[in-house]
Records
---
Amino acid sequence: PERVVVVGAGMAGVQTAVALREQGFTGTVTLIGAEPHQPYDRPPLSKAVLLGTAEGSAFDVDFEALGIELRLGCEALGVRPGEHLLDTSAGPVPYDALVLATGAEPIRLPGAEGVPGVHLLRTLDDAERLRPVLARQHDIVVVGAGWIGAEFATAAREAGCAVTVVEAADRPLAGALPAEVAAPMTAWYADAGAVLRTHARVERVEPGEPGAVILDDGSRLPAGAVVVGIGARPATAWLAGSGIELGAYGEVLADERLRTSAPDVYAVGDCASFPSGRYGERLLVHHWDNALQGPRTVATNIVGDAPATYDPVPYFWSEQFGRFVQYAGHHTSADTTLWRGDPSGPAWTVCWLRDDRLVALLAVGRPRDLAQGRRLIEAGTVMDPRLLTDPARPLKAA
Ligand code: FAD
């Protein structure tokens, strides 16, 4: 191909453009992004950027030196695969290869849209709007005890706000972790001085100074601000009518080489799912490492002669309530759970085994377990479950 066009100037889009150059691609690379800002990294938005200990999180990439043409403030509106054309707010853009990297957008709280004082946390603009909210130290209600909710609650407590987290499920991270693993995390909220209310559904948000969150049991929580962290879904509505196949969550259905159902169109990062050979199911991963690794496969498949297959061991981290939480792999409820260490203590690990092989682990304050475990997962090593549970022993093969 001569002309590669990448849509979405987040982590996955930027990494794709960079990887193309790293792999020797000499044609034109155009990176199109809807946001007006210089491309930036998202994880600091719920951490240092929110607390004001970092000004911004722009990627340290010299686009000009790499010959990457940046078109910011430009929104993709549709694709015409038959004509190899991308339609944008600035007109049609022809491509030889197109990479979809439009990421995800936060799910909005029904009925709270446009209510003053209700915030999301996905973009730099969101984080900048939230900084003065933290500085005012009001009562803050966080809706959703997921990864973003926990990280935001951590920052808000650090800033001295009174924080109540309301969660519809019976525990934090209900979508991601089984009850026994999430159980010790419940205590983290109280330790940090945040109130966690489970089985709590928001009925409505009342605007005002302060406003209030009304729960379905009738309770009324005063709220100087409301922060909604109830999940994200692929930002793919703009692909409707393109013929590009989407899945149940609106994600682009990529194949094992990250190709879409349209010729010469690839998809990577938060907007796409792929079939995992390793885990035998399709994975939709909304984490940073996937937006780093996937682009290398895409670039290889655009540039190289030999096709590359994407089959990662997924990885992510979260920093919440003074703890460093890391997860590698992928587990299902059918896998066996084994503990290393005391979950009420500051550091512990949970391992998931399938046929005595490590398929996933979650490490709290045990980065060495994570590093060793990740390699064992990659290698598919057979483990001795009895040795595994001794936290004093390094994680290694039987
Ligand atoms: P995005 O980062 O969403 O980038 C997509 C870009 O495409 C956006 O800039 C968007 O504006 C643009 N776009 C969308 N539609 C269009 C269109 N039609 N036309 C043009 N441009 C468009 N992961 C971790 O592993 N650890 C963490 O600690 C962590 N912390 C996080 C904290 C926050 C606050 C957030 C929001 C996410 C965090 N993540 C974390 C997740 C991680 O940031 C994402 O997985 C990663 O950003 C995905 O990159 P992406 O490029 O696929 O998508």
---
Amino acid sequence: MPETRVPRRRRFLVCEPRHFAVQYAINPWMQPDIRVDVDLAQEQWQALIRAYRSHGHAVDTLEPVAGLPDMVFAANSAVVVGGRVFGSLFHAPERRPESTHYDTWFKTAGFDVYRPESVCEGEGDLVWTGRYVLAGTGFRTTREAHREVQEFFGHPVVSLTLVDPYFYHLDTALFVLDDDNIAYYPEAFSPGSREVLSRLYPDAVLATRDDAAAFGLNSVSDGRHVFIAPQAEALAAGLDARGYVPVPVDLSEFRKAGGGIKCCTQEIRS
Ligand code: ARG
């Protein structure tokens, strides 16, 4: 019998995809000027918010801004641990203006925001495990930023190198299941980083390239429920066998921009 998993209530920050579009290409999933069905995107996104709320999670929203088509990807705006907000400095000039709006939201909500000096893209690459930060580099967030993150939070930061451009953010290749375990796609990482992950998490749930390409690793877990792309079937079955409860939420329209469930979700940890 698999273990009974206990959920923990979360607080999420999200941004409605009212102005969602693909207007530039900054990752291999994006084809500039591909048509995006904004109504479908809105429906899919609303279903995600309903799924969070119906599982007892608190959801805060921030107003989207016209001309910032990737602003829906709230995860990239910051990483928040213990009520401390480490803001973002986007790699792509097109996304840099998003930071002002997110910073304003955090300040209005009563948080101070640290402005980093080096390129870093929030929870896209900086993943809090409950004990330390797993930090991706290779495509976006820099190693200098990893040092800044460690200095700011005073928590250990474990640098991991991403090697596959389709999995350009750490949160496309790995997610945290609970305080003790993670799921990831090993081939997205350099050999040394793979070894680090297997030492830290000998019992991790390993995903295939198909699971990863379906954005199955761009999932959100509350410790029991895993909000996951329905196309990541093998991974969902693997999670189920370990006692987690997959909650399928289809964000297929966001794949055109290289995003999924986690990308749309910023966790606020007080
Ligand atoms: N188009 C966005 C970008 O390339 C997608 C961001 C996805 N976010 C994430 N947390 N992986 O920046």
